[in-house]
Automatic annotation (TrEMBL):
The keyword Metal-binding applies. It is an enzyme of class 4 (lyase). PROSITE patterns: ALPHA_CA_2. SUPFAM superfamilies: Carbonic anhydrase. Its EC number is 4.2.1.1. Residues 1-32 form the signal peptide. The keyword Translocase does not apply. Keywords: Lyase, Metal-binding, Signal, Zinc. This is carbonic anhydrase. It comes from Actinokineospora spheciospongiae. GO terms for molecular function: carbonate dehydratase activity; zinc ion binding. Residues 1-246 form the Alpha-carbonic anhydrase domain.
């Protein structure tokens, strides 16, 4: 399977993201505990970081159809400046899509885009990356990451065909097949990492999928909006592994 440029056995795999645990000081008067190494996202996925586990819990995907509001996420007061943490975000109807992992349900809240890809495979970037952000009832965060490459048209092109300008009115899409946002193969690579924008909260479950395709026009349009890019650089693995799920 083509999934970036990391080769494991006879398969080719890619994209992954990291998490971090924060150390704390002990009570006053006691010696300070050592902080755990940061587990931040995104990361560069290498063959040495990958472990295959055929018995790992599956990520079960239950995506339906939903209206989508495409909004420009603005992080400053300047309607002309493109901040590195700004993006185009698709907000979905509550309950329209969810995943389950290890007995916990995570509802899809929104999906957004970065250029170039935040995760790399053996140092290789893809033109775009889509993050589908899910939350559990207890507040846990699970993100599905999908690299986007130039190829045949997909439903992602329909979403990004008319970008919402900064400080502009959100663009409403009546009906999007959310499952069609994903690649045909739902093979995943899992690891624990963080949000890739402030406050960079750790403890995020990342599931990285094979590539989805978009047209060259879609890539060009998004990159024209974010000429300086809107992705965070890769962060150290700090001993983490990436677990491949069948």
């Amino acid at each position: 399977m083509k999934w970036g440029s990391v080769v494991v056995g006879k398969a080719v795999f890619a994209l992954v993201v990291p998490l971090a645990a924060v150390g704390a000081l002990l009570a006053a008067g006691a010696p300070a505990a050592e902080s755990a190494p940061p587990r931040q996202s995104p990361i560069d996925v290498t063959a040495s970081a990958i472990r295959f586990d055929p018995f790992a819990p599956a990520l079960d995907i239950h995506y339906g159809h939903s209206a989508v509001d495409l909004v420009y996420v603005q992080k400053d007061a300047d309607c002309g400046a493109r901040g590195g943490e700004e993006t185009e975000e698709g907000d979905v109807a509550p309950g329209s899509a969810y995943v389950t992992y290890a007995g916990t349900r995570y509802d899809l809240v929104q999906f957004h885009f970065h250029t170039p890809s935040e995760h790399t495979f053996q140092g290789h970037h893809d033109p775009l990356e889509m993050h589908l952000v899910h939350r559990s009832a207890a507040g846990g965060v699970l993100v599905v990451g999908v690299p986007l490459r130039i190829g045949a048209p997909s439903v992602v092109d329909s979403v990004l065909s008319g970008l919402t300008p900064e400080c502009g009115t959100p663009r409403h899409l009546d009906d999007i097949d959310l499952n069609a946002l994903l690649p045909a193969s739902h093979l995943t690579a899992r690891y624990t990492g963080s949000l890739t924008t402030a406050p960079f909260t750790e403890g995020v479950l990342w599931f990285l999928m094979p590539e989805q395709h978009v047209t060259a026009a879609t890539v060009s349009g998004f990159q024209h909006l974010f000429t300086a890019g809107n992705s965070r650089g890769t962060q150290p693995l700090n001993g983490r592994t990436v677990v491949l799920h069948p």
